[in-house]
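Long-time lurker. I teach an intro course on protein structure, and each term I like to show students one example going from raw sequence to a predicted 3D structure in token notation. This year I'd like something fresh instead of my usual example. Would anyone be willing to generate the tokens for the chain below so I can use it in lecture? Attribution to the forum is fine with me.
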Amino acid sequence: MPSSEGLRLRPPRHRVERRALAWWTVQASLIPVPLILAAGALYLLIPPARFVFGWVLLAVTVPGVAYIAVMPQWRYRVHRWETTDEAVYTASGWLWQRWRVAPLSRIQTVDTVRGPLEQLFGLAGIKVTTASAAGDVTIRGIDHRKAVEVVEHLTRTTQATPGDAT
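-- Reply from a regular --
Happy to contribute to a lecture. Here you go:
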């Protein structure tokens, strides 16, 4: 078994599910869409203040639509994951991107995570708790069945790996 010093930070091999695009798009819409609708309603319902609400509508619509259009695509290009017999590799983020490698010898727990929207899209996440000050390693946006398989595999593999996470 290679030592953790032999592990290197590298791009993980697997993309998240294509359905993650829809999940991230819905998530991205949860704040801008209600703001746009509220500003639009105020614009229509209060004619004397249309000048002000017109600018407010423009100020929330342009960045809101740009965020909804760009963020999910960008995240899909960045997010990657991979598990090997030595480590868990992740790449995540969109503006602030993060690459992580967690040697199996440092893993303490492995869990699946599924929010309501992830359940709607048949997706799940994996949360790998490590003996690291950097915090958990997470993989989000993978098929629920695949996540269960990966968690079971990681649990078996980490139990068989002598570690320093105790």
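Some talking points for your students: Residues 50-78 form the longest helix (29 residues). The chain has a mean pLDDT of 90.
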